[in-house]
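EI: anyone free to look at a 284-residue chain?
SC: sure, send it
EI:
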Amino acid sequence: MVKVFSFFFNRSNLFLYHKVAGMRRYAVATAILLVTFSSSVSAQENPWIFGLYTHGYHFITGNILSLARQIVNIPIAKATNGAASFDLIPFNLHYMSFKDNGENVDYKMGNPYGFTAYDLFNDLEVGVKFGWQGAQSPIGAYVYGAYSINQHKMRFLGEQEYSKHKIQSFKAGIGVRISPLRYLMDDYDWCPIIELGTIYVHNFMYKGPNGSDIDQLNNGMRTSYAIGVQFDEGEQTVLACMDIAHYNLFNKNYTPDDGFWFPYANFKNRDFYFSIRYSKTLDF
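SC: here you go
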């Protein structure tokens, strides 16, 4: 089975080692600056949260998008006496496997720690998010909608070269955050938290080796799960997150020639993401 890991390291690659070490220092520095900045904000009065939503699979691009998002969200939070949040994702792993009639199909995803344009500007999402989270409530909820772009490379059975696949999608999601033991915050300044969500993915544009017919792809559902801890009166959260697809990417019934050839008839895939996420709520 083809396993696609987001990060590859060996001793012979000293250049990558130094780059990743620099990224770790960047992550620590960002977290320290964030905590310092947020120490002067006031308590949240408005439990409703509305603003720009961004997500990036690449370590640098994703976290830069998160910082840039605050340019929009902080003025909204200040105007509404609400809150904005900053996310830092120091680790991402993407596992994906394809099989055609039971045989493995080679697959390449962008490297979340790479420095090519293909790596930096891949698997991005931009949209809007709306939610509610009371300061003392054990339950919060959110909805969001986003434009997504994703690229990957595959080598079909019998082919010598990898082909590029570019997919543009619209995603709509809903989720809940549950802190059933929030009373622990009073005595211990921490409590466990769970996040559960579901996402619908609608692919509307595709470019691949068999043309640009969008009927080659399926639309479908994903689910997201996260578990972690809250501390600092609930203002900071660390979560281990997983996102799983529940549909096959390629449409097994697709035929480009009125039924003579079905290129994806026996295609199946598995697809999930795993990440570590740090969040800091900024109250105004």
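EI: The two ends are 49 Å apart (CA to CA).
SC: 👍
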